[in-house]
Specification:
The structure is a single chain. With 213 residues, this protein is α/β, with parallel strands linked by helices. It contains 6 helices and 10 strands, in the order ββαβαβααβαβββαββ. The chain has a 7-stranded mixed sheet with strand order 1-4-3-5-6-10-9. Strands 2-8-7 form a 3-stranded antiparallel sheet.
Length: 213
């Protein structure tokens, strides 16, 4: 998906690839408002979203930040590699997929994508995301717990407001791979520092990283 800038939000969101959406659930987010505050002082910030296209999210961030948004939908890329039996090529593919110049991005929404990668592939992606993030930029990621391992379902996150997220799950071809301890997550994102970390009601860890100025 290319550049999406200030697109009008849609009233209804369907699951990717025409799949029926499940009932929406809502949970509070503590890090989203902090993520937004990291970017509000910047003129025309650049934002990368690793998840599928969500019209209401594009509208929300466009209105809040006046930003340029690149939606990559790496979940669709992951499914294609699983379907074609090319998972061993995914790490190198993701390195090329993150094509922005070094230190050119103000904010990154990882959601829970890293949970579906093996450690080697996750490290390659984390290195690229760190590379493109500007000094004092912010990266928001969710990390699952061991109770969620083996789930072959992806999650579509929808911003309700600054302190609440809605989500739907939908079928995916790749189960969750691992529940990373904090030390491994920190090692993966070497070069970034943890600004805030919270354990959410749905047992996911919500971590906000910053790139030192």
């Amino acid at each position: 998906m290319g550049l999406l800038d200030r697109i009008t939000p849609r009233k209804h969101e369907s699951a990717p690839d025409g799949l029926p959406a499940e009932a929406e659930n809502t949970f509070p987010t503590k890090a989203l408002r902090k993520f937004l505050s990291c970017l509000t002082a910047r003129e025309l910030p650049v934002l990368i979203d690793l998840g599928p296209v969500v019209g209401t999210n594009i509208g929300f961030f466009g209105e809040q930040l006046g930003c340029k948004i690149f939606v990559l939908d790496l979940f669709a890329d992951l499914d294609r590699h699983v379907k074609d039996g090319r998972l061993e090529e995914l790490g190198d593919f993701l390195v090329k997929r993150i094509s922005q110049e070094a230190a050119s991005v103000d904010g990154i929404l990882c959601w829970d994508f890293l949970d579906y990668l093996d450690k080697g592939t996750a490290q390659k992606l984390a290195t690229e995301l760190t590379r493109v993030l500007r000094s004092d930029g912010a990266l928001l990621g969710f990390f699952g717990t061991s109770s969620q391992l083996g789930e072959s379902r992806y999650t579509k996150f929808i911003v309700a407001d600054e302190v609440n997220l809605r989500y739907r799950t939908y079928p995916g071809l790749r189960p969750r791979q691992s529940s990373l301890p904090n030390r491994d997550i920190l090692r993966m994102f070497e070069g970034l520092t943890v600004s805030d970390s919270f354990l959410l009601q749905n047992k996911q860890r919500e971590i906000l990283f910053r790139k030192p100025a």
